[in-house]
Amino acid sequence: MTQLLLNALIAGSVYALVSVSLALTYKLFKYLNFAHGQSMMIGAYLFYFFTVQLGWGAIFSIFPTIFLIFLLAYLFLRLFVKPFLNYGSSITFIASIALAVLIESIISIFFGSNIKSLILTNNVINLSNALITPIQILTIISTFVILGLLIYFIYKSSLGRKISALSENSLAAQGLGINSRSINYLVSVIAMAITGYAGILVSYDVNMSPTMGSSFLIKAFAIMLISGFGNIWAVVISSYLLAIIENYAVGLNLISMGYLDAFTFVIILFVLLVRPQGIFYKKERLI
Amino acid sequence: MKKKSTLILVILGAIVLVLVAFVLFSKINKPKSATSENVLTAGVLLPLSGPAAGFGGDIQKGMMLAYSELSPEIQNKFKIIYQDNKLDAKDTVTAFRALDYTNKLDSLFVVATNEFMPIAPNVEQEKLPTLAFSYESSAFTNAKYGYRFIAKAQEGASKLEGYIAEKGYKKVAIVANQCLGCQMMEQALKDKLGDRVSSVDEVAIGMSDFKAINTKLISQKPDAVINLLISGFVGEYAKQLRNQGGQMPMLSWDMAEDVSEVKASGGALEGVVYVTLVDVPSSYTEKFFAKYSEGSASNSSVGYDYVAVLAGAVEKGITTRDGLQNYLQNLSGFSGAMGTYSHTADMNGFTIQPNLRVIKGNQFLDL
After folding, report:
1. How far is B85 from chain A (nearest CA, A)?
2. How far away is chain A from the Cα of B342, in angstroms, using its nearest Cα?
3. Which of residues 1-60 of B touch A (CB under 8 A)?
4. pLDDT by residue (tens digit) across A59-86?
């Protein structure tokens, strides 16, 4: 049982990183970014390029990876999001599908389609009959740290409050003098960096392939549905909730792994039937 | 001001698209196009994108290797056209139609069992000699033009069963992907092993986090686990099982024979015994790994031999469907990358033999 809980914590941490960053961009730009999963893959492959192909080592590879993620986040926003936002969320959503396919093809061409893996160490730590690897410990702890910092930044800092204001009512916030342009870039960069970091963690813990982001993106959409497209807290709790349900359902033999996604979506449909606005939706004051 | 920035944006976008298009077209490996009228045209349907792209890519590597070894004279009489079928039956039908309508095909190669089945009737109707990377299936019953181009799943399962009996394993767990080929091998093993199969876990293709099923499997304490996952997941599964404390012996199939799988496993595939549904000579394995640093020699050998068999026909001046059909029906003692084999009426296949091998370091050795 402890092993199942640990498994759920590891999976939930990755779900939380991917979902929270998706929720950040959704709340600000009001469209579902289909290329969000590809940000995960970009982070993983850039890191792989510097650590394995150039042999720079993990520490020195972090900086160029972050720099390139920042650059790409800017380019994607400039070329694939901003020009379409004025024409509605559907058009922007379709543009993000095009971007996702494009990124996947480019990565396949340059790195090949074969699955790759980053290996830190083969050491395994025994925690009262539950086994965990160092990278899995890092996944859990660093996720808590990142989410803690992000929540503090969003809810406590002045810049975070500007982001919240723009997310709530963009026109009113701009009318009050908030510079939406710089905030948009900042949120895009933060979201892509968090997702890219999740991609690096997954590459160490599991593996990496050009299609690695797709399955996580579907989970992130599901988590946003459960959380009622709500605040970051709701998304984080929904992420861990989903991971716990999945791991215990398979671990206790309630469902075959092959039908796990179907099982998950049956639960989500049930939740939506009972509470269409999502579990954590809170009615907000209009005035 | 706004118009100017829109113009700059459009120009930037156009430059990016042109660059991307240039990269895409320059990187695609195109076969040399034929110049003569008497050309044998082969259509190839295999997964080049999606979760099974690594598997399809290996087969394509084998084809390209064989093609590169042909003389320019034969290359001029032999054209290969690749189409991505994403290892999906629906996409295979679409890709087949596209190939069939726009080219005068003389032969077809298709991966894999589930993908061959929906086009099998068309192949028979059009009298198009088609070699399928496929196990025995109803599609081959009374087939004339659809050929089974690997050993039967039952033959492979017999080999593994022999090894399991020799080792005295009483409880064996199976982990397989949800693909028809994986499930046919799983069924063949269940038929041979009977009540020695203690559990079966099927995993959707693309799913790579096996922690939950491993926790359950380890608690059941099987004597061995049979890993029937597709390329890209075999090594990953082994790594996660070992990391979670599962130290029982592991058995597998052709998909384990891949340097990138061994690397991804971080040593967890060491000592794994696996069955291949082709009997690849070591000379081919060495040649393959000398040319490509990663991939599966076994899977690539099927692609290699498809090109080699067709090239043999072209050498004899055969460039038509009828001629090729006659050539395949009478193929005898062909020595290629899958061993030495002949045509057999048994499920319209070839006498390709399965083999047991073991992973030692980065090497794949006969057991």
Report:
1. 15
2. 32
3. 6, 9, 12-13, 16, 20, 23-24, 27, 48-51, 53-54, 56-57
4. 899 999 999 999 999 999 999 898 998 8
Query: Is some CB atom of chain A closer than 8 A to the CB atom of B162?
Result: no
Which residue type sits at B353? Q
Q: What is the pLDDT of residues A114-137, one digit of tens each?
A: 778 787 777 888 887 888 999 999
Name the residue among B302, B319, B301 with its Cα closest to residue B310. B319
d(CA A77, CA A207): 28
Q: Please provide the DSSP assignment of B293-313 as one string.
A: SSS-HHHHHHHHHHHHHHHHH
Q: A136 to chain B: nearest residue by CA? A: B243
- Please tell me the predicted confidence (pLDDT) of residue A287: 44
Burial-class residue B365 by CB neighbours within 10 Å (0-12, 13-18, 19+).
exposed
Whether the per-residue pLDDT at B320 is higher than 70: the answer is yes
Q: Which of residues 172-211 of B touch A (CB under 8 A)?
A: 178, 201-204, 206-211
Indicate whether B30 pLDDT > 90: no
Pick from A34-38, B29-33, B48-52, B64-68: least confident: B29-33
In a domain, A285, yes or no: no
Query: Are B212 and A209 inside 8 Å of each other by CB?
Result: no
Number of other residues whose CB lies within 10 A of the CB of residue B183? 18
Beta strands B130-133; B146-148: pairing state: parallel
- Of A131, A246, A258, nearest to B245 by CB-CB distance is A131
Residue B326 token pair: 């006659």
Helix (H) or strand (E) holding B197: strand B197-203
Task: Please give the Cα distance from B190 to B82 (Å, whole number).
Answer: 36
Contact criterion met (CB < 8 Å) for A206 and B208 = yes
pLDDT tens by residue, A151-207: 999 989 999 889 888 888 888 888 888 888 889 999 999 999 999 999 999 999 888
List the single residue in A116, A131, A250 with the smallest CB-CB distance to B243: A131
Specify the CATH superfamily of domain B153-276: Response regulator (3.40.50.2300)
Residues 229-248 of B with CB under 8 A from A: 231-233, 235-236, 239-240, 242-245
Amino acid at position B342, single letter: S
Provide CATH 3.40.50.2300 ranges for chain B.
Answer: 40-152+281-353, 153-276
Residue A238, CA atoms < 13 Å, CB-side half-sphere:
30
Q: Give contacts of B178 with chain A, Cβ < 8 Å.
A: 258
B:119-138 residues touching chain A, CB 8 A cutoff: none
Q: Chain A partners of B267 at a C-beta cutoff of 8 Å?
A: 122
Name the class of domain B40-152+281-353.
alpha beta
Q: Let me know if residue A201 belongs to a domain.
A: yes
pLDDT tens-digit readout, A209-268: 888 888 899 889 889 888 887 688 999 999 999 999 999 988 888 888 878 888 888 888
How does pLDDT run across A196-219, given as a tens digit for each residue?
Answer: 999 999 999 888 888 888 889 988
ipTM of the complex as predicted: 0.75
pLDDT at B195: 95
Let me know if residue A281 belongs to a domain.
no
Asked whether the beta carbons of residue B211 and residue A122 sit closer than 8 angstroms, the reply is no
Full residue range of the structural domain in which residue A152 is found:
2-274
pLDDT of residue B29 exceeding 50? no
Q: How many structural domains compose chain A?
A: 1
* Domain membership flag for residue A279: no
3-class secondary structure per residue, B94-138: HHHHHHHHHCCCCEEEEECHHHHHHHHHHHHHHCCCEEEECCCCH
